[in-house]
Amino acid sequence: MIDNINLKSVPFEGLEDEKRYVYVCDMNKDLSRWSKAAVEYFDLPGEYVENMATVWLGRIHPEDRNKYEKDIQAVFSGKKARHNVDYRVKNKDGVYVTVTCRGIITTGADGKSKVFAGSIENHQTSEVIDPITGLYNIYGFMKDAQMFPERHKEKVYLIFGINYFSDINKNYGFEFGNQVLKRFTEELRSLECEGALLYRMDGIKFCLVMEGHQCSAPEVMYELISNFAYRGYDIDGIHVSFSISGGVVYVEKDSEVTIEAIQASLSYVWEVSKEKHLGELVYFNNELFGNTKKNLEILSEIRNCVFHDMRGFYLCYQPIIESASGAVCGMEALLRWEHPKYGMVSPGVFIPWLESDPCFYQLGAWVLRQALMDAKKIIEHIPFFRVNVNVSSQQISRSGFRDTVCEILKEVQFPAENLCMELTERVLSLNIDYLRQELEFFKNMGIKVALDDFGTGISSLNLLLELSVDELKIDRSFIKDIISNVSQQTIVETIAFCAQKMHLSICAEGVETTEIKKYLDHYGIPKQQGYLYEKPVVIEEFTKYLKKSA
């Protein structure tokens, strides 16, 4: 049986802090032990308290007692697996503070002894509670994920976020926007999903964490959330409705996946839903290569390698050719990753995912430094030679990116005018004024700016109008069938005409045959890149190619 000595042996000191209080209750004896911080903050009768349910209920705000009793009874009767409820409770100063109380019942080996244990999070002082919604925030999500006791069980993560929430703030003000989030959270809390944990992630995203067997399928939950968001509600006489975007990540039982990899995967599927699928629910396994467990384990390992001296990462380079003379005028740096267990992993798989992880900034800096070091050896012999390095929106959005680029240029002693930054249209997600200022800074240094994959997205023309760039790179999708496809011919001809009128350089990617080269020459496209000339190769092979082409 569990007795006083057992309760005393619970290591509260390692579990509590000034924001989270811990309790454990011997249900057979109706005897509870509370952490010392809880005893002091709530002015409890002592560390050990009998009939605590009655004592504690008296401290809960009268309006919240029914909610508390309903939840606790559901747990004690076995209808719910976990106690998880927010309410107001009086502290030692007689002030009601909002807390989140969580708990779980465990049964002893004899099948009779029962312990109810858990924690109380104080919203007044907690760094893991979102002050607007009262939900655990992303830090609480990370903290909880490390402590999930059911690591051997399948987990389902449903992430969703409000589309164009900035318009609500812009039109009605931030305080009104906060009221919208509070009301949305109330609706989310009403969802019938036993044992599910709800978090407010970064920005306007939320996450439901469920065990595989819990509640409805994630698509059913997502439809419920979408429906009440679309129906909307009235706040201060104003009717508000909105759409959401979302995605699902499954983590199989006993999977060796880090919570950081899960978090990055959640950000990735949400962005794919928002940017490419108009808010349709996106499943992580369908978006990449099928096997979710293998997928997440590979991505976890990739992330781990970033923090271990970029283990397995290396660069390949593809030449950029002046079509008229056949001379090599530059090269594009392309990231690769290879692993003893997983082999070569396509950059098309891990780069879009990794861009959602903060570690990508560190990786991007390594790519820039390595590319400049390799290119420096070439420009000593070919002064006009230029290296193109891809820059993501995640990198350029960082306030320290300017300093990072300047420091690397200085460290490598590389001429700024021999560097070209390639941007994709995803940078349009950034504030356009901020983006314009950043690019002007780099251009004033002498760095060239190119728009990569030009024409593939609906925002390409807008970027061309808004930003001062030096070069357009025509995506290979407009090149591969250009000999027979009239639409591709028209698009390429139009892009070439616009570039010439705007005094922009232009480069075609994916040139694989002599026929395609001749067709592009006809339209006056001066730079070309593709397998007709050379596939991406490591720097040693590239140097040999340069000598052979000279």
TrEMBL record:
Domain GGDEF: 153-286
Matching Gene3D superfamilies: 3.30.70.270, EAL domain (3.20.20.450), PAS domain (3.30.450.20)
SUPFAM superfamilies: EAL domain-like, Nucleotide cyclase, PYP-like sensor domain (PAS domain)
Residue span, EAL domain: 295-550
Molecular functions (GO terms): cyclic-guanylate-specific phosphodiesterase activity
InterPro entries assigned: Cyclic-di-GMP_PDE-like (IPR050706), EAL_dom (IPR001633), EAL_sf (IPR035919), GGDEF_dom (IPR000160), Nucleotide_cyclase (IPR029787), PAS (IPR000014), PAS-like_dom_sf (IPR035965), PAS_fold_3 (IPR013655)
Entry-linked Pfam families: EAL, GGDEF, PAS_3
Name under which the protein is recorded: Diguanylate cyclase (GGDEF) domain-containing protein
Source organism: Eubacterium oxidoreducens
High-level lineage: Bacteria, Bacillati, Bacillota, Clostridia, Eubacteriales
